[in-house]
């Protein structure tokens, strides 16, 4: 089984399904997979953007590429799309759950609707897609499930409580799913990036108050992140934390949470934010 999993290190002709594939991290993962010869299937709500990604993938890979309109909030749509992919394209070799939603505001300002939507997109949809595809991969004896988490799920920052909670839950979900499918030759890889230079923050942080506290050098280029992810598929890699030094920061926070809280609040000038509530 490990030998079959190793085959994913070379993506040529492997079927890769990516949710959130029309933009941001998902789009860059799709393009990098195409460069490596994969048959790319992108899913998302915006058909026009998906079609543009597919055209680029066709050029980069010389292989077929496909787009399926999908709202991950609808489990019936998920079932339908997975069924269409399996019958129209083939069995999925790699699943990437890259669809996500953020809202960088204090808990006291957070709306119930926003909290519910983040929970459903960032956790429940990922869990359901992972569950559906895991069953298929266990039957075929290999595969890789890649879930895009966040460093916010490991290192707390003010004004991101609900988003961070969904990502922390996802990390723990992956830890257990990994144990359950490992003997079937299925890799579960959790990717925890810091802030990525995409349009994510235009929706999550429209007034720029969250990003204002982050130096530009901390922003991760999505193209570089995509290469790092694919370089770890087909191996025993459990988790990728980007930038790498954040693994140490996370460990230090767990060891000394009181000092960690103080340092993080100072870094984000949280006292000033509290006055705005």
UniProtKB/TrEMBL annotation:
<protein>
    <submittedName>
        <fullName>2-hydroxycyclohexanecarboxyl-CoA dehydrogenase</fullName>
    </submittedName>
</protein>
<dbReference type="GO" id="GO:0016020">
    <property type="term" value="C:membrane"/>
</dbReference>
<dbReference type="GO" id="GO:0016491">
    <property type="term" value="F:oxidoreductase activity"/>
</dbReference>
<dbReference type="InterPro" id="IPR002347">
    <property type="entry name" value="SDR_fam"/>
</dbReference>
<dbReference type="InterPro" id="IPR036291">
    <property type="entry name" value="NAD(P)-bd_dom_sf"/>
</dbReference>
<keyword id="KW-0560">Oxidoreductase</keyword>
<dbReference type="Pfam" id="PF00106">
    <property type="entry name" value="adh_short"/>
</dbReference>
<comment type="similarity">
    <text>Belongs to the short-chain dehydrogenases/reductases (SDR) family.</text>
</comment>
């Amino acid at each position: 089984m490990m030998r079959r999993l190793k085959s994913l290190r070379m993506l040529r002709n492997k079927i890769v399904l990516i949710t959130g594939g029309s933009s941001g991290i998902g789009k860059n993962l799709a393009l990098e997979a195409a460069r490596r010869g994969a048959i790319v299937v992108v899913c998302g709500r915006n058909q026009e953007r998906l079609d543009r990604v597919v055209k680029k993938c066709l050029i980069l890979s010389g292989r077929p590429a496909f787009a399926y309109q999908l709202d991950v909030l609808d489990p019936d749509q998920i079932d339908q799309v997975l069924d269409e992919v399996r019958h129209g394209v083939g069995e999925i070799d790699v699943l990437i759950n890259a669809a996500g939603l953020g809202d960088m505001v204090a808990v006291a300002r957070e709306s119930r609707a926003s909290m519910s939507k983040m929970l459903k997109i960032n956790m429940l949809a990922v869990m359901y897609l992972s569950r559906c595809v895991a069953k298929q991969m266990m039957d075929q004896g290999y595969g890789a499930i890649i879930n895009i988490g966040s460093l916010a799920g490991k290192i707390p920052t003010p004004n991101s409580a609900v988003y961070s909670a969904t990502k922390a839950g996802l990390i723990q979900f992956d830890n257990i799913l990994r144990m359950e499918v490992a003997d079937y030759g299925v890799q579960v890889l959790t990717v925890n990036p810091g802030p990525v230079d995409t349009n994510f923050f235009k929706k999550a942080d429209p007034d720029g108050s969250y990003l204002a506290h982050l130096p530009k050098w901390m922003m991760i280029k999505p193209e570089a992140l995509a290469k790092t992810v694919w370089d770890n598929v087909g191996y025993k890699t459990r988790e990728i934390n980007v930038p790498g030094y954040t693994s140490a920061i996370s460990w230090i926070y767990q060891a000394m949470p009181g000092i960690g809280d103080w340092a993080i609040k100072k870094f984000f000038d949280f006292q000033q934010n509290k006055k705005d509530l």
